[in-house]
Design a protein that fits this description.
By secondary structure, the protein is mainly α. The two termini are 49 Å apart. Helices cover 79% and strands 0% of the residues.
Length: 742
């Protein structure tokens, strides 16, 4: 345990989160020290430090260009807000409507996406902390200019850090992606043998899919932007090779759906066969985790010796199963085991390729040939029409902006009526805690209160032990970078250090520190109570109101992916950019659906309308994507024969079912599906053809004739393609039934 803790601490200090926090702390502390000891006026340094604080939220992982414009936008917003609030802060009759308008406007720009939401947060921080400035010490305009100067100073430092330490950000992204992928594989290994706890394992897997999609998006933006801007360096090329293998491992995992109930039934008396597969999957997962440590230089690259031994053992077990059960009874089980073994062998080959890349040895130049690289970077749409489209109570962002605006006015009035020591602390709590979704607001409220109480208890203990202001200053300085580095990793722990920083900064200025502790706790509890109550009672954005849109987007994405797979089966040859983009979109949209379901699962039971049906639909959507990926993967990586008519019959049926599902979700009129006997006929043709090939092979076995390559291809293709399209057909019908129920 001690070794684990030391390893985690070492990793934390090497992480991009800690580096960013150090940069931020330096950017804030240096101006304060300069202002205090050289200018003998702390207000100048404090204003610059606030400018650093306001611009820091926009410093997120991504390309240098996006980071630059994000921070620059935060600086502009902070300057304008500081100037406006500072000018009217003494006139309550003017500041209240101004507060409402500014908070709503700044919150509302979040409709433009994640980076815009961080710029919005920076602006809201500026709104709140503008009330902390004493205009008698420094003029409003001077303060606003110094805030802009602080933001610019932070921008310069951040850009320099990104240029001087380019590896840290990229390595961190790869490590997170490798570790999340390893955990994803481990869950799939557990699903194979764990019959009782599959529902919770599925939930964990859905959550991880969303995280992995986010990892991939961040890596894609960073390394493809580098390629577009500066071409190929050896390092960039290796990063792209690593990324391509990571994508392939994830897609392979998604594209090998296992009908666990079928496995349970067939191998009920032979569970040891599946246990060996679980052991192999765990070893592959462990090797991915080991590779993540190699990237961080925590371990030296070593080949996993257990993997080939387990693979050999699995081959023996399959042969033993086939001989024990005997043909033809063992054929279905043997094919299932062989397919699972083939899948694991492909994953192992990907691991070997990654190890070669890390050893600077690779013959794979495929990544250099990627066409239209810029099309794979997800661009944010900044069309002003979005502002108009979201200006209604149908939009969660609109409701959140209105809710937050009203609460900020109420919090301001409460703080002034009760003559709180620092009434803006209530507003700060609201800004930090309030989120568009109830579940996240509830979680952050709880973590904020717990973290504040822990921080207050530690601060009280320190005060009782010593009244030394030097100690207070050291704690305030040390707690600042720790707090900022933990915000994304562990919000509760971040709240502990934020509380310590705030209390001891004020302790240096105000000798009555216990009064500061008391008001800090009281303001936090008031703010958290307001936030939690408003998220429940003021136009709550329950996920059941919006999840329909996530289903529509995921089904549309799956439909487009299906069309690209269909086209590839006919055309053969090289995979098109459109196919890869359709695949990427399908993964992202299903991941977004998973995230929406997770948010719904955090809401009050009374608001979880049709939760069990929605869960089934989410599970079907994920399984549908898995089956699609499996079909696409087979067509891409295998020589295939002429497309049979029955395949197209099924594809038309599946497309039609998906379109019916979309129309039901959109409440549009329906068209008639393919008649049942056409599907039955297509199914019979597939079954008869496979039976004919099986009989032919059985005769050859009796006569001692070795299987021909042509027959092997036909058997495998017929079995896999027919099973996948039948399964996709069943899943598409399940979607229609589920939508009709809700």
């Amino acid at each position: 345990m001690g070794k684990n803790m030391f390893s985690n601490l070492k990793r934390y200090f090497k992480s991009t989160y800690f580096l960013k926090a150090i940069v931020m702390a330096i950017a804030m502390v240096l101006p304060i020290l300069f202002s205090n000891f050289i200018l003998n006026d702390l207000s100048f340094g404090f204003s610059i430090a606030l400018g650093v604080l306001f611009s820091s939220p926009a410093d997120v992982q991504g390309s240098l260009r996006h980071k630059y414009f994000g921070i620059l936008s935060a600086i502009v917003v902070s300057f304008i807000v500081t100037l406006l609030i500072g000018t009217f802060s003494e006139r309550t009759y003017l500041v209240l409507p101004l507060l409402f308008i500014l908070v709503f406007t700044i919150s509302y720009i979040s409709v433009f996406g994640f980076r815009a939401s961080l710029i919005s947060f920076a602006g809201l921080l500026a709104v709140v902390l503008s009330f902390a400035i004493d205009n008698r010490e420094i003029s409003v305009f001077s303060h606003a200019l110094l805030v802009a100067l602080g933001g610019s100073w932070f921008l310069v430092l951040t850009m320099l850090t990104s240029i001087l330490f380019p590896k840290i950000q990229t390595d961190q992204l790869f490590v997170e992606a490798f570790e999340n992928t390893a955990e994803f594989l481990k869950i799939r290994g557990n699903l194979l043998v764990n019959r009782e706890d599959r529902a919770s394992l599925y939930n964990s897997m859905f959550l991880l899919q969303t995280k992995i999609n986010e990892n991939h998006e961040s890596i894609r933006e960073v390394i493809l932007s580098k390629r577009l801007n500066s071409g190929f360096s050896n390092r960039t090329r290796r990063q792209q090779l690593l990324f391509s293998k990571l994508i392939e491992i994830f897609e392979l995992a998604i594209s090998n759906p296992v009908e666990y109930e079928k496995f349970d039934l067939i191998f009920e008396k032979h569970s040891e066969k599946l246990a060996e597969f679980k052991n192999l999957i765990f070893e592959i997962s462990n090797q991915l985790t080991h590779i993540s440590k190699v990237i961080l230089k925590e371990e030296k690259l070593q080949v996993n010796e257990c993997i080939p031994r387990l693979l050999k053992k699995i081959k023996t077990q399959i042969d033993y199963y086939r001989d024990l059960v005997g043909l033809p009874e063992s054929r279905e089980g043997t094919i299932l085991l062989l397919n699972l073994k083939t899948y694991q062998e492909k994953q192992i080959q990907n691991i070997i390729d990654i190890e070669r890349v890390l050893n600077n040895y690779t013959h794979n130049n495929k990544i250099a040939g990627i066409k239209d690289a810029e099309r794979f970077i997800t661009t944010q749409d900044y069309d002003l029409k979005k502002l108009k489209d979201n200006f209604s109570f149908k939009s969660p962002i609109f409701k959140h902006s209105l809710r937050l605006s009203i609460l900020m006015v109420i919090g301001f009035l409460i703080g002034n009526i009760l003559s709180m020591q620092n009434p803006y602390w209530i507003l700060l709590t609201l800004v930090v805690i309030m989120r568009p979704s109830y579940g996240l607001t509830k979680q952050r409220s709880k973590h904020r209160v717990i973290g504040t109480l822990i921080g207050a208890a530690i601060a009280t203990a320190v005060v009782l032990i010593t009244q030394n202001t030097t100690v207070y200053g050291i704690i305030a300085i040390i707690s600042l970078p720790i707090a900022f580095s933990l915000v994304q990793l562990n919000y509760r722990n971040a709240a502990v250090f934020i509380t310590l920083n705030v209390i001891f900064v004020y302790a240096i200025l105000d000798p009555n520190i216990l009064s500061v502790v008391k008001f800090r706790v009281l303001d936090t509890i008031i703010g958290a109570t307001l936030a939690f109550s408003a998220s429940y009672f003021l136009w709550p954005a329950w996920q059941v109101q919006n999840i329909r849109e996530f289903f529509i987007k995921s089904i549309n994405a799956n439909l487009n992916f299906l069309k690209e797979i269909d086209e590839l089966y006919y055309k053969k040859g090289e995979v098109s950019t459109e196919y890869l983009l359709a695949r990427k979109d399908a993964f992202i949209q299903v991941g977004n659906l998973n995230a929406a379901y997770q948010r719904m699962n955090q809401e009050p039971k009374s608001k979880q309308t049709n939760l069990s049906i929605i869960y089934e639909m989410v599970a079907v959507s994920n399984t549908f994507l898995s089956s699609l990926s499996s079909l696409g993967m087979f067509i891409r990586t295998n020589k295939t024969t002429k497309v049979p008519k029955q395949f197209e019959t099924y594809i038309l049926h599946i497309k039609n079912n998906l379109e019916i599902t979309l129309k039901l979700l959109k409440s549009e009129s329906l068209e008639v599906s393919l008649v049942a006997n056409e599907i039955e006929k297509a199914s019979k043709i597939y079954d008869d053809y496979f039976e004919k090939l099986s009989v032919q092979r059985d005769k050859e076995i009796d006569e001692g004739i070795p299987i021909t390559n042509e027959l092997k291809i036909q058997l495998r293709e017929t079995k896999l393609v027919s099973e996948q399209v039948k399964w996709l057909g069943n899943l598409s019908e399940s979607l229609i039934k589920s939508v009709k129920l809700i």
